[in-house]
């Protein structure tokens, strides 16, 4: 009887595993830059299509985001490093609270710099749009852009 259960369990796991891996992944859903040959994700492409951008606007937006991503690469790495340092200190029973707070403040400053740079990029991006296109941002469906999360601009 136990062998029968083991065989049935193995069959069910194989069936589920096959179904999961048989579903094609959609690069646009992950927002991965590998989605298209030009480096832009399919999700990004559909978002730009909803704003009816001119070719010049698309190129300028791509330049803004490329510049932003290259600017924040090192900053993101520093945030990850600092986050790991904080985690390591937090799990060390010998570390006092002052050291933890100090590292946490450093991490907060790095995150703030990252957010400020993101805001600058958003403002540059927004300056490319026409007033009509800016109005469309408020009525876009949830998650329609990589820049805006949710309904409306923020």
Give an account of the 3D structure.
Residues about 25-45 and about 145-154 have low confidence and may be disordered. It contains 6 helices and no strands. It is mostly helical and about 150 residues long. The chain is flat and about 70 Å long. It starts with a helix and ends in a 17-residue tail after the last helix. It folds into 2 domains: about 1-50, no CATH class; about 55-130, Four Helix Bundle (Hemerythrin (Met), subunit A), CATH 1.20.120. It is about 70% helix and about 0% strand.
Kindly report the average pLDDT value: 76
CATH architectural label of the largest domain:
Up-down Bundle
Tell the overall outline: flat
Biggest β-sheet: count, sense, barrel? Answer: none
Task: Quickly count the domains.
Answer: 2
CATH class categorisation of the largest domain = Mainly Alpha
Please write the string of helix (H) and strand (E) elements. HHHHHH
CATH fold label of the largest domain: Four Helix Bundle (Hemerythrin (Met), subunit A)
Tally of strands: 0
Please count the helical segments: 6
């Amino acid at each position: 009887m136990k062998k029968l259960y083991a065989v049935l369990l193995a069959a069910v796991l194989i069936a589920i595993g096959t179904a999961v891996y048989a579903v094609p992944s959609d690069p646009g859903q992950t927002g991965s830059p590998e989605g298209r040959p030009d480096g832009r994700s399919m999700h990004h492409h559909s978002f730009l299509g909803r704003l009816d951008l001119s070719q010049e606007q698309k190129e300028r937006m791509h330049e803004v985001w490329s510049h932003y991503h290259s600017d924040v690469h090192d900053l993101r790495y520093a945030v990850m490093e600092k986050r790991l340092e904080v985690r390591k200190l937090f799990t060390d029973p010998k570390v006092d609270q002052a050291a933890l707070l100090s590292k946490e403040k450093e991490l907060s400053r790095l995150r703030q710099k990252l957010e400020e740079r993101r805001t600058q990029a958003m403002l540059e991006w927004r300056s490319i749009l026409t007033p009509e296109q800016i109005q469309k941002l408020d009525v876009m469906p949830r998650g329609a852009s990589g820049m805006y999360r949710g309904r409306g601009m923020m």
